[in-house]
Amino acid sequence: MLTACATTPSPADRLAEVAELVDTYALNPQMTLRFDGPPPQTHAEATAQIRAALAALDVSHTSYWTPLDPEYHDITGIFGLDEGRAVATTTTQGMLGQAEGDGWRVRNVLDGSPAAHAGMQRGDLIVAVDGQRLEPVASFRGDAGRTVTLTFERAGQAMETSWPIAPRTHADTWLAATRASARVIDVDNARIGYVHFWSFTGTAYVDLLVELLRSGELAQADALIVDLRDGWGGAPIEATVLFGGRLPDVDFIQRNGSPLVMLTPLRDPIWTRPVALLTDERTRSGKELLAHAFVTQGLGPVVGERTAGAVVGGSPFVLADDALLFLAVLDARIDGVRLEGVGVAPTVPVTRNSGPDDPALAKALTTLANIVHP
């Protein structure tokens, strides 16, 4: 579902435009935007009011972004609206994070990315890019190959690194990072396969998993860890069948209460050895459906933190001047259970701090090694 306007609206008209879309398409007909404050005089004021009103709806898959936000480019890529356009953002350069004080905290670094090759780590606090405050999109604008220099702090020590800007598409960023993450880790004479699905949006990711398990890097592993932490959601539910599980009943419900019929491709089981999932508070959407199936069907341990509880169906609406409204338009159930606002509790709880150490991965490795060699 996409909409577009021919001309850029005034700030007040933008609020009315977003409010009308919510009234027309939101998953619950009773959801209505309420804007606080006087009528906005600038687009920045309109953006702030829209975001505050959307947050007050208290439902996931509901946000407002502009081309200056990396999430804008992620979502347009996920939904095929970017026309294969390569961009340079914090995300396509390989960094997930958020503003913190006057800096920008790196939450995770994507495998095989420019940032990973430059040595950036989880927990780094970026204080400047080319001497200026980091802006997630604007800081990386310019000709491809232009070198950017990042100044950051790590464990209280000032550091610096640089790399040539590498504009990339959504597919290049997320699918390539997943492929680059695949490896085998030796633990107590057990070969534990590992792959991190930073995003799981679409059949290409399931096809990659099948490839890795049948003939790729993970085919000869004794056990497997599938890391679902951070990034975007997805996780086609037929993935449960790959691990010997049954296909859960997943219902998507439209705002009029009627179900939306969605066809699920048939898959064959290909992995019968031990398997574990890693989850955290940013494991979201379809990934949570997979985690729920693992817990309820006993397919393997789920290690880490409770998932986000962000399990509805979202749709992008392209507005004038390329702003983007992402709106929850479908409710969801798995085997009759609604996970929105609840999430999935891990079977092996492990908390991770903001630093580079990964106790959840360590716990998953030892858990699987003990299953392989009791």
Give your account of this protein's structure.
By secondary structure, this protein is α+β, with helices and mostly antiparallel strands. Among the domains are: 95-164, PDZ domain (Pdz3 Domain, Roll); 170-312 and 330-372, 2-enoyl-CoA Hydratase, Chain A, domain 1 (Alpha-Beta Complex). The chain has helices at 11-25, 43-56, 70-78, 114-117, 170-181, 203-214, 239-242, 286-297, 359-372; strands at 63-65, 95-100, 103-109, 125-129, 147-154, 157-164, 183-187, 190-196, 223-227, 250-253, 259-260, 275-279, 302-304, 313-318, 324-334, 348-349. The protein has a six-stranded mixed beta sheet. Strands 1, 10, 11, 14 and 15 form a five-stranded antiparallel beta sheet that branches. A hairpin with a 5-residue loop joins strand 14 (313-318) and strand 15. Residues 1-6 have low confidence and may be disordered.
Going by CATH, the homologous superfamily of the domain at 170-312 and 330-372 would be: 2-enoyl-CoA Hydratase, Chain A, domain 1
Mean pLDDT: 94
Could you give the count of β-strands?
16
Radius of gyration, CA atoms, in whole angstroms: 21 Å
| String of helices and strands | HHEHEEHEEEHEEHEHEEEHEEEEH
| CATH T-level fold name of the domain at 170-312 and 330-372 | 2-enoyl-CoA Hydratase, Chain A, domain 1
Q: Name the structural class.
A: alpha+beta
- Tertiary shape: globular
Let me know the largest β-sheet.
6 strands, mixed
Strand content: 15-25%
Percent of residues in helices: 25-40%
Spatial gap, N to C terminus = 52 Å
